[in-house]
Structures are given as structure tokens and as C-alpha cells.
Design brief:
The chain contains four helices and no strands. The chain is mostly helical and 129 residues long. It has two domains: 13-83; 87-129. Pfam families: SecE.
């Protein structure tokens, strides 16, 4: 019997909200600094932008939301390693099956459309083209 892990939802503390706010202010400040330093050389503007963005990301990652994002990424990588990928022959066969199915469905839908068109326009309405 499989057990499920219930998700425990935590209430954001004031410190976490402050971290997120500071992170957002740093992102806005990074963009503003890039444009306000228009008279400076490009390399200086880019360094200022990158430093402020790195500080914003760093502050975000130490908040509860950032920790949850890191845990989600780690779980995703762990689950990806569990995937059993098909062999080349199996992948080619399945791709062929998909192409055949799509062709048959397209043919079926085309025939259905033409049959309904004939039934409506020629038989019911009597419109001849």
C-alpha cells in the first residue's frame, strides 16, 4: 500500500516577507542602477546589475520560498534519475506508431468532413457547386 506524504503548509513569518521584499527591491534597484549609470562604461553598468541581481537571488534563496524552491529542484532531479528511458529501437517504433495514428486520424476526419459536407449541401440543402 502506497503512502502519501501530506504537504505541510507553513505560515510565512515577517522575516520571510521582509526577505522577499528586500529581494524585490534589489531586483528593481538593479535595473534602475543599470539605467541610472548610463554615463558610466558598459562593463561597470553590467557589473552593478549582476551584483545586485546576485544579492537578490541570494536573499531569496535563504527565505522559506527559496528553500522550498531548492527542495523542489532536488526532488525533480531525484525523480528524473528514476526514469527508465526507452532504447533507440523502441523510440523509433513508438514514433512510427504515432505517425501512423496521426495519418489515420487525419484521413478519418477528412472523410467525415467530406461526408457531412456532401450530406448537408447536396442532399439536405440541394446546393450544387
Amino acid at each position: 500500500m502506497a503512502t502519501t506524504n501530506p504537504q505541510i503548509e507553513t505560515v510565512s513569518s515577517g522575516a520571510d516577507k521582509a526577505k522577499l521584499a528586500v529581494s524585490g527591491v534589489l531586483v528593481v534597484g538593479a535595473v534602475a542602477a543599470f539605467y541610472l549609470l548610463a554615463a558610466q562604461p558598459l562593463w561597470l553598468r553590467v557589473i552593478a546589475l549582476l551584483l545586485l541581481l546576485a544579492a537578490a537571488v541570494g536573499i531569496f534563496l535563504v527565505s522559506e520560498n527559496g528553500k522550498q524552491l531548492i527542495a523542489f529542484a532536488q526532488d525533480s532531479v531525484r525523480e528524473t534519475r528514476k526514469v527508465v528511458w526507452p532504447a533507440r529501437k523502441e523510440a523509433i517504433q513508438m514514433t512510427g506508431y504515432v505517425f501512423v495514428f496521426v495519418f489515420v486520424m487525419a484521413l478519418f476526419l477528412w472523410l467525415t468532413d467530406k461526408t457531412l459536407e456532401w450530406a448537408l449541401y447536396d442532399l439536405v440543402l440541394g446546393w450544387r457547386r
